[in-house]
Amino acid sequence: MWGKVLHKITRKKTIQGDVLATELHRCLSTFDLVVIGVSNMMGSGIYVLSGVIAHHTSGPALPLCFLVAAIASSMSASCYAEFASRVPKAGSAYIYTYITMGELAAFLIGWNVILEHIIAIAALSRGLIGYLNTATHESVSDTLHEVFREHDWDPYVIPIILTAALIVCLGVKSSALFNTILSTITVIIASFVVISGTILADFSNWHDFLPYGPSSIFEGAAQAYFAFVGLDVVATASEEALNPFKTVPRAIGLSLLVVSVIYILSSAALTLMVPYTEIVDDSALSAAFVYHGWKWAEYIITFGALAAMTGSLLGTVFAVSRCTYALAVDGTLFKFLAKINSKTQTPIIATLVMTSIAMIFAFFLPMEILAELLSMGTLLAYFVVALATIMIRYHPLDLITGLPFDTQEQSENARLVKSCKWERNQTISLSLFLVFAILTNLFLALAKHNSNRDYAFTTYVILICVFSLLMAGSIIYFSVVSQENPSEPAYKVPFNPFMPAASIFVNFYLITHLKLITWVLIFGWVIVGLVVYATYGNFHSVLEDTQPSDPTTKKEEKVN
């Protein structure tokens, strides 16, 4: 019994035949994909995070924070780019996990990414209303009934989310056109900020460049990292991209580069215009121009913020519909969600169902709570994709097809011995690496918490050094004993397994610093997901009645 359960939850998806076959409409060019990536990442970095980080964490060193965050994000982006060039399918992290780690792990990753997108939709719609309310001097909130204001309920989010859902339902090309318009506006206004900031710059504001010390650069980078969340939506669009093997990796890199340049230059302009002590948290750019008497520029900044958040909202609605579709196609989620409209070639039902859930979140939950719940799903996905990148590069089988790379005739038993021996070495070394990474991050958190207690702090620092060395040693050992397989995707992560390992560490570091309420929500959502999988996905999976393609599984069945 338990062997059957273990087989079910660890069975892996394979793709045989034409990997480009799809019911969706393949029409997105590299430019379209870049626009989707830029619009999805530009929702909060300039207009919200920059002021908070500069004022409380980094001071004038804000551009360095965004630079370090961009470098850290590029590691995750590189992992997504390699997988997109191998598996051009909707679902992104879900499908990558399904191929490398098995069904249950994939379902939970997809399930959590769906929640992440739902919360992001709710937060962005609330943010749009907040900006409109500020721009109209509270006139939006004044129109609400007293009951809504008393409970902080917001009915205006419903038409905003519904409009975004209808635009996405029109077709991927139509929503891409809207994204192009919004991204163009965002880039133009960001250019205005940079040019105007140069005119109004006062370099004396940079005299005390590191008021919070050198460590503030990395603390600020950890916060700025969340401004780059959303790059995975480009990989999600793989199933609708033209020549995805090349266009998707290229678009991931270009969109990250464009956003990084905008963030770094605009943050430099902000900290040159205003002393960091005078930066306003929630409206940093608008207040910076008012500080110099350019009150008219406040309206331009507000318009830019609305365009950026609207573009990010459209991108997030697109992403949640495709992720839901990917799970439903595989049968791990309700299959009616996989239905594609014949005219628009979009998953309309999945789009409307998930945005309806987002409307409920947005209506009842205030922005403060939604902001605290963001990012766990994405960080988990980044973590798993980095691990999967190591696995797919060094596995002796082609995990995508489930077939061996070696075309020469060899006995099945010989192949099985080779595969099992390699998997045992991989499991030991990667498991040790993950354990040491967890312990290192745990002691980092404890050291920060006990920084005023000399003895405890010193003890934790020693433990950090010990486990950091063990962590490095385990991944070096893995690289020595493992042989890279002969697969040649259009793009390969450089310095594998070290770059994906660094990405794993960075994402786990950020996961451990999320608030308790985020962990509670994720735990509750995972419990619901396990119930859904146990009662539906487990029995309706497309792999339920198929023979396992992995020879090791076949051998085990024969032995039993």
In short:
By secondary structure, the chain is an all-alpha fold. It is built from 23 helices and two strands. The chain has helices spanning 2-10, 30-41, 45-58, 62-86, 93-100, 103-135, 139-142, 146-151, 157-169, 172-199, 215-224, 232-236, 244-273, 284-291, 297-329, 348-364, 367-373, 376-394, 412-449, 454-481, 498-512, 516-540, 551-559; strands spanning 397-398, 403-404.
Describe this structure in words.
This protein has a two-stranded antiparallel ribbon. With 560 residues, it is mostly helical. The radius of gyration is 24 Å and the shape is globular. The C terminus is likely disordered. 71% of the residues lie in helices and 1% in strands. The longest helix has 38 residues. The two termini are 12 Å apart. It has two domains: 364 residues, Amino acid/polyamine transporter I (Up-down Bundle); 147 residues, no CATH class.
Q: What key phrases describe this protein's structure?
A:
1% strand, two-stranded antiparallel ribbon, 560 residues, Amino acid/polyamine transporter I, 23 helices, 2 domains, mainly alpha
